[in-house]
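Note to self: keep these together.
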Amino acid sequence: MPADRFLHARLGHSAKVSSLSDLEYRVWTTYLLGADDFGVMRAAAVAFQAAHDALSRRPAKTIDKCIERLVKTGLVKAFVHQGARYVYQTDWQDFQRVRYPLRTLHPLPAAAEVSRRTQHLWSVHPGGVKVPPLSKTSGAALPFVRKPPVGTPHDRDDVTRPGALPEDSRNSPGMFPESSRTTSGIFPSHARGCETANGSRLTADLEEGGLGGEGPDAVAARAAVFIERYRADLYPRHRGVAYAPTRAVEASDAESARRLCAAYGPEELEGLAARFLTTEGDRFLEGRTRTVSMLLSMAPALAEQLRAGAGGTEARSADPRAAYDAAIERAKP
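Structure:
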């Protein structure tokens, strides 16, 4: 799906849109541009400021007030997932007509009244597949109830409720042809597991789940938390600028975060990220945005450096690139 977003001419005569101030209107259009292909965006000032340079020069409290104004007018609705607040548009697909939604780490609300087209789009969440044709039957706003992943405890906020979508409305082999599925060719990553020094470790951990037999759902949940922390906290703190990747990079980051969380524990991954974001003088990193995919490719060398710095028997090279190359050589069979 291109990064383009559509605005209909009738929005110029919308009572909701016309009631917004100039700044509130800019925040609303930033939501349209910054939301994922399912119309979901983190309802936090830092997310909006990362998506729009002009908003980054405004106080965070002012942006938060504008977000609340959007919710109050009904242009967007809000929900909470795992302690984080998100916003979405109930008739998103009526305007955007998304056909190939990119994979996303953002959740959907546990239950929501959305338009028929938007409900149909949400049936392929988290994306990476083509949206199948919608039947011609009539329908307006319909209740959407999200089903939890297999093995999810029932005490979470996304518990299945009465009226959930039927099983065959999900991404099942009978619904989507093999040619429409996401492959590494669709969302390429220069840092897939087979191309890293610890590639065999990453691949094995992903097949088995994660560290200590951690299930795939738990790994995916940790990956979502890590990538949100990377964007909203770690990157601005260590690099001094906002992290605003393109949609293609977001898709690559999502897969890379999942592989990292399958291979490393939370504390170890935190140390790797801090080391990665503060390393200077590396030709591989110089002048480039430090994406999560790049962190995945350098994870073996960074782990080597951290072990050596903690008192390992092998001295760490003064050149980060040399340490990276040395780790790659040692990993070869």
